[in-house]
Each structure stands twice: as structure tokens, then as C-alpha cells.
Amino acid sequence: MSFHLTSSDLRVESHDGRSYLVGRATRADGSHNDVRLDLDGILGNDNGHFQWDGENFTGSARNVSFSIEGGGAVPVLRAELQNAEGHFQGADVNLSERVENVNGDLVFQ
């Protein structure tokens, strides 16, 4: 299921140098589950760009944010990521490319 269409109160929270996508995901039976997905376990920083199957993007990021954007309701994670030269540049990733709601749990596919 499209996690952003079947969840509510979605936001990014940072704790202990890591970023988490948190909210309430709907299960198949209609009940809700509080969820927390460790984004640093699935996303890295490749020279100033988000990288799927990477790790610890937060360690080289600032101004991390999350929003649902556009007419297609796209769930976008944005941040300024540090590149190899040490400069920060804007980066974004569509989380629905690899994150799904599987019966009330946010799962990386």
C-alpha cells in the first residue's frame, strides 16, 4: 500500500544523530499502528545526493524535512547534504519509491 496515502501524522524526527519517519499507519482491518522507520538505515549520502541502500545520511545533512507535495501527493524527504568538497547542496528523494505500508508497518522494499 502507498504508505503516505494510508498513514496520518507523518513527520521526520531526529534523535541521537539519526532521522526517523514517524506517524500512524493503517492496517488491513482498518486499525492504526504507531510507526517509526529509521531513515538512516536505508538512505546514505553519495556526494551530496540521497542514496538508496546507503546508511547514515543524517551525519552529513542539515535542514532535514518531510512534506507531501504536489497534485500527486508525493512524499518528499529534503535535506542539505554535504558533498565531497564539504559544501552543502539541496537534495530530495521520493520516499514512496521504496517505502510501503505493509499491514500497518512502514517497510523498506
TrEMBL record:
Gene3D superfamilies (alphabetical): Cyanovirin-N (2.30.60.10)
Residue ranges of domain Cyanovirin-N in the record: 2-108
Protein name: Cyanovirin-N domain-containing protein
Organism of provenance: Discina gigas
Domain of life: Eukaryota
One of the Pfam families matching this protein, by short name: CVNH
